[in-house]
Each structure stands twice: as C-alpha cells, then as structure tokens.
Design a protein that fits this description.
By secondary structure, the protein is an alpha/beta fold. The chain has three domains: 44 residues, no CATH class; 137 residues, Aspartate Aminotransferase, domain 1; 267 residues, Aspartate Aminotransferase, domain 2, CATH 3.40.640. It contains 13 helices and 14 strands. Helix 8 links the parallel strand 8 and strand 9. Helix 3 runs parallel beside helix 9. The chain is globular.
Length: 458
C-alpha cells in the first residue's frame, strides 16, 4: 500500500486546527484500480478518546489568542498590558470557582493535574511533621519507626500522579500508605473500608471523583461526611484532622461538580479534560488558614507564594473560558454524551451479541455519561490488536499514561473484578460534545471489520 497523505479538518483558524479538529481525512494514494492506476480513497477518522484529552473549543482559542495579543505584560507590573493580564487572571480564577461552587481566593493555578496532586501530598507530609514538632515530638522525616510517619489512604484505581508519589514516600520511609481495594461488585472504593483504614497518624484520604477507565463515580461526598464526623471524635482525643482530597479531572465538564456538596478540602482541576488548555488548578478550602498548603517551588510571590513563577496568562485565560462554558452548558453536555454513550452500547450489543462484555457497567452505580469500556471476547481480539486493525476509530485501551503497556490487562479492570482474559481485550471509548450517532455507526462497522479481519473471515 502506498503512502497515505493526512490533513486535519479544521474548525477554526489553521494555526489552531490541530487542537480543535474532531475528525481526520486520509487520502490513501496506493489503492490500485483495475487498470493499475492509483485511485485516492477518503477514509474518515472518528476520535473517541475524550477521556485522554479534548480539543480546544473555538471560544477558548479566541481567549488564548486575545490574551497573547493584548495581555502579554507581566501580571505583577503596573502598565496597561500587565494590568490587563492581572485582570484576566482574576477573572479566570472567579470562573473556575464558579464552575466548582467554591471561592475565587481558594483557587491556585498550577501546570496541571500531576502538579496539583503532588502539591497536596507534599503539603500533607509537611503539615504532619510541623504538627509533630509543635507537640514536641521531634522525629526524623525518614524515621523507620511506625507511627512517626504520616499515613495516607487511597484506593487501588487512582491515577499515577497519586499512586507514584505515595509509593515514592513509602520506599523512602517518609510515609505509610493504605491502598484500599475497590469493590469487585461495583468498582467503587467502599466507605467502610476507608474508615476502617484510618489510624491516629492518618492525615489525608485521597479518592478520585470519577475513574478514567470505567467512568465509575466514587462516593466522595459520603466519604467526606464520615470523615468530618470522625474528625470531631479525633479532636476530643487530641488527634489532628484527616483531610479529604479528590482528583476531579475526569468529572469536570461531564457532570456537575460542587465542592460544598462533596465536602472536600482539596480538589484537582485539569484543563485539557474539559476542552481547555493543558494547565490546571487546585482548589484548597480556606487555603493556608483552614487547610494547609506548602509550596514545592520557591521564587517570586505569585499565587500568594503557594505556586511561584510568572503566570501563564494566555493559558489561564483559556482555562477560565473553558470553565465558563462548563458552567453555562454542563447539563446540555451531559445529556448529549449520555445519549450517545447509551446508543453506542446498544449498537455494540446488537452487533456482537453475547461476545460483548461491558466492563464499565456496574449495577446500581453512577458513572460518567461519556465512558464505555468493553471487551469483544475472542482469543485473537486483544484490545490493542483490535484498535490497530481499525480504519476509522481513534481510541485507546485505557489510560494514556499506560500506553507503553498496551499488551497487559488493565490493573484498574482487574481490581474491579474483570477476568484477565476479558480485561486483556478491553477497549475504552469515551465520547465528546461533538460525537454523533452517525459517528457511532461508523466505528461499530469499523470494529466489525476489524474483528472479521483478525479472525480470518475477510
């Protein structure tokens, strides 16, 4: 087959087309006609990996571009372009706060979700040792003695930006961590298991709001309520509060998120998951007063010294606009994605019958409206193999950060009780705001031909 020429179907200015295109066209120039001549064949590509990343909305691109042109000054300066930059940053902070039902002063801008999550963990280690010092318990941060290190509670299906920092602390004898297994019945971290793991030295419970592979919504509100009640008992015993953090990366833009309803102390915001730029933010309830936060970086006094460094005004402008769109349209987005996801699952079941295993459908459990994790059962139908055979579908087998281990079954699915042979065949489809039923029809037919090719029926 000859070389394929690919270009993006731009939905806005060509400069930004790469970021906003939903589909690709490919001219296959090597398909020979009966007369031996090459005839171009258009192949449409349909993107269904919105849990991995999303394109920028045109309004977001406009906000970024305008900030680049008009607000290029240093936000700490007093001249016009600097004051404009400061105003944009303040407006974006207010937009993010509105999106999550919080206060603008509780929003700290970061480079992304990984930094936000690490900042929370770092802060809790520092806070624990300062509390120990105030009590007169002068201990080495690397002390091997149990009970002298901060204790964290998380679950077995967390993102690597939670799991790996905690594992690093354990390896260096700087913390103790309990990884609570999720239920094999519903894919959730059970509240009772989390409460049972609490120790006198527990400082933080960190549980994601929605899982990126299964879409399962975790019972964060219920966890927070129980931890709040437990903290009253701990206070009477002279023990410090246990704080609650949730990584809301996958939930924002797909369902309503409210920090008051959730009752959390920290919440991670990731722009590129809701059609914004690749920066992030961290919500901290009563930052520095009610809830401790310690900088990992040192430099200028930006972000009230919690996250120094000259602010990235254009990206912050884009993040603010993306948050505005969520605040204005979240219910519409959610309803559309749920309709498309449900139609997708209906079509998969109709086409593949009993061979389809819906890995993300747990009885009685709320899940993200856009996520469908499934397996087509068959010895030759490993997820990455099926996707490699697809001509139209652009998707992944699971978390993008694990893409170098595509041939291994997902640890998340295994934790949820999915059998190894089924998990090995898993494909994660996640629809977006612009996905249509026609797109679904295209990719189901594409999956059908891919399976037929792999099983030697074509």
């Amino acid at each position: 087959m000859g070389k394929a020429v690919t270009w993006q179907a731009y939905g806005c200015a060509a400069l930004w087309g790469l970021f906003i295109s939903r589909k690709e066209q490919t001219w296959d120039t090597g398909k020979a006609c009966g007369n031996g001549n090459s005839s171009p064949r258009v192949v449409w590509k349909v993107y269904m990996d919105y849990n991995a990343t999303t394109p920028l909305e045109p309004e977001v691109i406009q906000a970024v571009t305008e900030a680049m042109k008009e607000a290029w000054g240093n936000p700490s300066s007093s001249y016009v372009s600097g004051r404009k930059a400061k105003d944009i940053i303040n407006a974006a902070r207010a937009s993010l706060a509105k999106m999550i039902g919080g206060k603008p002063q509780d929003i700290i801008f970061t480079s992304g979700g990984t930094e936000s999550n690490n900042l929370v963990i770092h802060s809790m280690v520092r806070c624990f040792h300062e509390q120990q010092t105030l009590k007169g318990n002068m201990v080495d941060q690397h002390s091997p003695e149990e009970g002298t290190r901060p204790h964290f509670i998380t679950c077995t299906v967390e993102h690597d930006s939670i799991r790996l920092p905690l594992e690093h602390l354990v390896e260096n004898q700087m913390a103790e961590v309990t990884f609570v297994p999720v239920s094999k019945v519903n894919g959730q971290a059970e509240v009772e298991d989390i409460l049972a793991a609490v120790r006198p030295t527990t400082c933080l419970v960190t549980i994601m709001l929605a899982n990126n592979e299964t879409g399962v919504i975790m019972p964060v509100s219920k966890i927070s309520r129980h931890i709040k009640a437990l903290n009253q008992i701990r206070a009477a015993s002279g023990l410090p509060r246990v704080l609650v953090h949730t990584d809301a990366a996958q939930a924002l833009g797909k369902r309503r998120v409210d920090v008051e309803d959730l009752g959390v102390d920290f919440l991670t915001i990731v722009g590129h998951k809701f059609y914004g730029p690749r920066i992030g933010a961290l919500y901290v309830r009563g930052v520095g007063k009610l809830t401790p936060l310690y900088p990992m970086l040192f430099g200028g006094g930006q972000e009230r010294n919690f996250r120094p460094g000259t602010e990235n005004t254009p990206m912050i402008a884009g993040l603010g606009k993306a948050a505005d769109l969520v605040s204005e349209n979240c219910e519409t987005y959610e309803a559309h994605m749920r309709d498309i996801r449900d139609y997708l699952e209906e079509r998969l079941e109709a086409e593949f019958g009993k061979r389809i295993h819906l890995n993300s459908r747990f009885p009685g459990v709320e899940r993200l409206p856009n996520t469908c994790n499934f397996s087509i059962q068959g010895s030759q139908l490993q997820g990455y193999t099926v996707l490699a055979q697809c001509r139209t579908l652009l998707a992944s087998v699971g978390a993008s950060c694990h893409s170098d281990h595509e041939d291994r079954p997902s640890p998340v699915l295994l934790s949820c009780g999915i059998p190894v042979d089924v998990a090995r065949n898993a494909v994660r489809l996640s629809v977006g705001r612009s996905t249509t039923r026609a797109d679904v029809d295209l990719i189901v037919q594409d999956l059908k031909q891919a399976v037929a090719q792999l099983e030697g029926r074509l």
